[in-house]
Specification:
28% of the residues lie in helices and 16% in strands. It is α/β, with parallel strands linked by helices.
Length: 599
């Protein structure tokens, strides 16, 4: 019996083996396992570019590896030399934080920070010298493709670096948002101001003829570009204030959500036809030059829907022309509500969005004390997405990221008395959900090495190479006695090994990548979550069960009546169903099983 089971498993693995490296272009977005990293914090293979070719102190170069808010020295060559490590985890797609040239340092005096993260762009057409060169990026993409790995770029459309200033807000003074009602386009500086922009009927009319009448940008504030930065942005059209909203800082509510400056960053007027065509040219050029495989879109919800309705099809067409049939585009909509996320796939026509609802469910059930029915409610909203489950299954799911924080930190907040062993088991359990439930699993660099962090944003952006940042050096890692003082690329780390095993199971089991999904069991308290996924061709069932509680579980779980026998892919699976349509599941605390219906 045991030999027959092993032969059956081997046959299944062969029949569902992932596409060979040479065929990576044919993989669908849902086939991937994504690894997300910030080049500055990953590995430093070329110290000569640490200062980005700039001279002077840290306020000129942006380089200060002791400060969490400045460049630390990581670069694209560092990513290239760690491809073995990344691929060894079962990763098939690499998502790299923005690599475009950034304003090195910005912020009010005494509170400056650097553009190490890549989101303060001045030159949209070239790699920031802190990360290397365009040639270095090409070498990385080519090397990844040679291995059958895809590369996704992180792109920004909503804003540029903070270059435009307002006469009314001197000396770093914050500029509050000024609405269209109080400061219409037709008057200079408010409703009682002098008439300007005659013939401009408002930004709802996106025609070139209408925007030709918008000639004055001083309807709300009086914007200007400092002489020293007159041609700071590339392409040069981005230096003209007429292509920005110039209404002051966003409150992230109402109209300001799409028209306000994001914490002072220059908010691009994406309603303008010139801006639409300009960004299509910019990002189409990256596809043409480097043949990247997808875009993650930063701050996507802060851009008007009409922009995406034009931009997305143009990028997909550009990709197809470059021989990339499954170009994956997903937007950042940082809202943990499935209905809002789905709205951006229906109205904006974004092919996918980052699944913040999944992240919330994982945080509140595995790193918190909510019932597993929170996952059931999350998945019940899948029909809301454009094309329903087909789109939901293309959503990149995650449990940690560089903005919200690391999952281990969430666990420590939810269970402050938990041992390090329990914290690690919860981290592994969350990644098991990530790699087996619907969606495209996205692993945040460092999680696999037991990084914990101390909060969100800069407090969750630790160096993976040997750190010199006191805040990071003071943090304890999970699953190892090592510290942040040494490079953390240990393929023997227990979390790395757990993710690698899960990624291999996922790659070899098409039901876990492309299969439809049914929630079999969930409750209003910590405990059992059981889910079935079905192979899209054979309809063979894979049963996955998780225990989010600290007590063992034994329970009967409904399965398809044809699923009479199971082979274990992970954990102890009952080899035979208890009765047609029911199987016994036994789970240790904070553990999981993956059970494949035998042929």
């Amino acid at each position: 019996m045991k030999c027959r089971s092993l032969l059956a498993l081997a046959s299944l693995l062969l029949s569902t083996a992932p596409l060979a490296a040479a065929d990576y272009r044919q993989r669908l977005p849902e086939d991937e396992t994504i690894y997300f990293l910030l080049p500055d914090r990953f590995d430093n293979a070329d110290p000569s570019n640490d200062r980005g070719g700039l001279a002077g102190d840290r306020l000129h170069t942006g380089f200060d590896p002791a400060d969490k808010g400045f460049y630390h020295g990581g670069d694209l060559k560092g990513v290239l030399r760690r491809l073995d490590y990344i691929q060894g985890m079962g990763v098939t797609a690499l998502w790299v934080a923005p690599i475009f040239r950034n304003k090195p340092v910005q912020g009010p005096a005494g509170h400056e920070s650097a553009g190490y993260h890549g989101y303060w762009i001045t030159d949209f057409t070239h790699v920031d010298p802190h990360f290397g060169s365009d040639a270095d990026f090409k070498a990385l993409v080519d090397a990844a493709h040679a291995r059958g790995m895809k590369v996704y770029m992180d792109i920004v459309v909503n804003h540029t670096a903070d270059v435009i200033q307002y006469r009314e807000c001197a000396d770093g003074q914050a500029c509050p948002y000024r609405s269209r009602a109080d400061y219409p386009y037709s008057r200079r500086g408010g409703v009682t101001g002098a008439p300007i922009n005659a013939g401009f009927t408002g930004d709802a009319d996106h025609s070139p003829a209408n925007f030709a009448h918008l000639t004055r940008p001083d309807y709300a504030y009086t914007p200007f570009v400092p002489a020293a930065e007159a041609h700071e942005k590339v392409p040069d059209w981005l230096n003209d204030p007429i292509y920005y909203h110039n209404r002051g800082n966003s409150t992230f509510a109402g109209e300001s959500s799409t028209m306000g400056d994001f914490s002072g960053l220059d908010d691009v007027m994406t309603e303008s036809p010139r801006v639409v065509s300009g960004f299509i040219d910019i990002y189409g050029g990256w596809i043409d030059r480097f043949h990247v495989d997808g875009f993650r879109i930063d701050t996507a919800r802060h851009v008007n829907p009409e922009f995406w309705q034009a931009f997305v099809p143009a990028m997909e067409q550009r990709a197809r022309a470059a021989g990339i049939p499954h170009f994956h585009i997903f937007g950042e909509v940082a809202v943990p509500d499935a209905g809002t996320l789905a709205e951006h796939t229906r109205v904006d026509k974004l092919p996918a969005v980052l699944d913040f609802a999944f992240a919330k469910a994982a945080a509140e059930t595995v790193a918190g004390k909510a019932g597993t029915d929170l996952f059931e409610r999350t998945f019940a909203a899948d029909p809301l997405y454009e094309h329903g489950f087909a789109t939901a299954n293309e959503l990149p799911t995650f449990v940690s990221n560089h903005d919200n924080g690391r999952f281990a930190w969430f666990v420590k907040q939810g269970f402050p008395q938990a041992s390090d062993e329990e914290v690690m088991r919860r981290v592994i359990l969350a990644h098991a959900m990530l790699l087996t439930l619907r969606g495209v699993p996205t692993i945040y660099a460092g999680d696999e090495q037991g990084f914990v962090g101390t909060g969100n944003d800069q407090d969750a952006r630790e160096d993976q190479f040997a750190s010199r940042t006191p805040l990071y050096l003071g943090q304890k890692l999970l699953g190892t006695d090592a510290t942040h003082a040494t490079a953390r690329f240990d393929a023997a780390h227990p979390i790395y090994r757990a993710i690698a095993e899960l990624a291999r199971i996922r790659a070899a089991t098409s039901a876990l990548r492309r299969g439809t999904q049914i929630v079999r069991a969930a409750g209003d308290k910590p405990g059992l979550l059981a889910v079935s996924r079905f192979d899209p061709e054979t309809h063979r069932e894979v049963l996955i069960a998780f225990n989010t509680s600290t007590a063992p579980i034994e329970a009967q779980v409904e399965v398809d009546t044809a699923s009479s026998r199971f082979v274990s892919l992970h954990g102890g699976c009952a080899p035979v169903a208890s009765a047609p349509g029911s199987v016994r599941v036994t789970l240790a605390p904070l553990d999981y099983v993956i059970c494949n219906r035998a042929p």
